[in-house]
Write a structure and sequence with these properties.
Layout (H helix, E strand, L loop, with lengths): L1 E5 L9 E5 L5 H6 L2 H7 L21 H4 L7 E4 L4 E14 L2 E14 L4 E8 L1 E4 L2 E14 L4 E13 L4 E8 L4
Length: 176
């Protein structure tokens, strides 16, 4: 338990000292009555404290920071289903279920819980979940150990972890 007392030395200003009160053992700690626990947790704070408050850093949106390229990211969360056409997306992250056609998208990440059915022509993909349909990856296609890809697959470079699966019409783009 921690107890925080204001220093009583003259001229000490608003400094604090922290002392600990060890408990005999964890079993004894669970047997303490709520009143006893409340009486050991005392905090004294001055209005003129020199201890700065903990403040989370402020993160500005990309456009406010002056970044030249704005990242357009779409996240389909766990338990969410999306059906339709997705366009102009820099990064698509699928943790739910998506049945769609991707147009003008750059990269796709399908998490272990994610499922994608449809068609995509993209620069890069990382598949940890399930992908079914037509997939063209111009650069790197990474299939993780939990990933399953089925359908027509074209790729620039293919990486498959132990346990990952790829089934269907699979060809390298370099073989054309």
């Amino acid at each position: 338990m921690f107890t925080r007392d204001k220093s009583t030395k003259p001229g000490s200003g608003d400094e604090f000292r922290e002392t600990t009160t060890p408990l005999a053992d964890s079993a004894a700690a669970t047997l303490l009555a709520p009143q006893a626990q409340q009486s050991t947790d005392t905090h004294t704070v001055s209005r003129h404290s020199t201890v700065p408050p903990a403040v989370a850093p402020i993160v500005l949106p990309r456009e406010a920071r002056g970044d030249k390229h704005e990242l357009k990211k779409l996240i389909v969360g766990k338990g969410i289903s999306l059906d339709g056409k997705i366009s102009s997306c820099d990064r698509l992250i699928v943790d739910g279920k998506v049945e769609a056609e991707l147009q003008d998208c750059h990269t796709v990440e399908i998490t272990e819980n994610g499922t994608f059915k449809g068609a995509a022509e993209i620069a890069g993909a990382e598949i940890s979940g399930h992908y079914e349909g037509s997939l063209t990856v111009r650069e790197n296609l990474l299939i993780r150990a939990t990933g399953r890809v089925t359908g027509t697959v074209r790729y620039g470079k293919l990486h498959i972890e132990d346990g990952g699966e790829i089934n269907g019409d699979v060809k390298s783009l370099a073989s054309k």
